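Below is how a single chain appears once it has passed through the pipeline. First comes the sequence as given, then the structure the pipeline wrote out for it. We keep one example in the README because the format questions we get most often are answered faster by looking than by reading.
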Amino acid sequence: MLLDRFGPRRVDATLLLVAAAGGLWFSLAQSTTELTLARALIGLGVSGCLMSALSAFALWYPPERLATMNGIAFASGMLGAIAATVPLELALRALHWREVFYGIVALTVTVSLVLFFVVPEKIGHRKPDSFGDQLHGLAAIARDPAFWRAAVCIGASQMAAVSLSTLWVATWLRDVAGYSQAQVARALLAFALAMITGYIGFGRAADARVRRGRSTLPLLAGGVAAASLCLALLALGVRVFPVALWSAFFGSATAVVLAYPLLSRRYPREMAGRVNSTLNVFVFVGMFSGQWAVGLVINRWPASAAGYAPEAYPWALAMLWVVQAAGLAWLWRGRRLFA
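Resulting structure:
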């Protein structure tokens, strides 16, 4: 609602200062409580970053370029994930983790200042909606059956893809594939590159379909289906070329973010913040639920000194596959809603 009322530039610039404050607190923290609260403050501060970018693109670019621009935003975000793999491992050989956080805080403040003083403002064609009108807009989104089809699909797919990429794939590589910390870091770098390729590739392919007057839904569904196939193989215990198989999974799963431009084109530009952010709620619910649920499953087997039980992972991956496949089936059954 803030994005639609005050614009993505001002909202994101302000929130990034909150994130910088949280990062500084984290780097100075002396207890678990302080670390936790500081981490929450960082989360609040960065909560608007992606949605600000998607909202800005909806305001500045025509519909037939939205998927590509959104893909660039997601791919740019993956640069942070890349920085947290091999580059971070190398930096920690020379620097303390607190010093690394000082650098991150400085970069965050710099980006905020650039948004405040360099990035131009998109002047709207009409006055921003009142608070009541904004709530009516949210109600319209909630009544849209196409929204629910897309939201359930993206939540289910990201429950698998994001929960694994942000947490459990690293432990799988350690416990199942027997990778060292350095090998895990290199594998995570490969996964991030695969996701960057997927975001940009699917975005360009989707915009090409829009320019020809064709739906992007088959492209979205095809990518998620390919990811689901890879996940099924991993759940069945396939360990041949694990980095390639995981890379194919993560790269294919990026197709689900085509749901953002798919829905944005159904609503006025002035509602982009609410449409994208409401959809993103399902992503975070799915992501957290996946992280938590995998932990519940894996912890049913006794852990060893080296990590979690390797025989637990196929059950956890199978659970995620069922959810992802069900979300895709739910979306495809309602495909005529997107015609």
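The chain has 15 helices and no strands.

See the next section for the split statistics.
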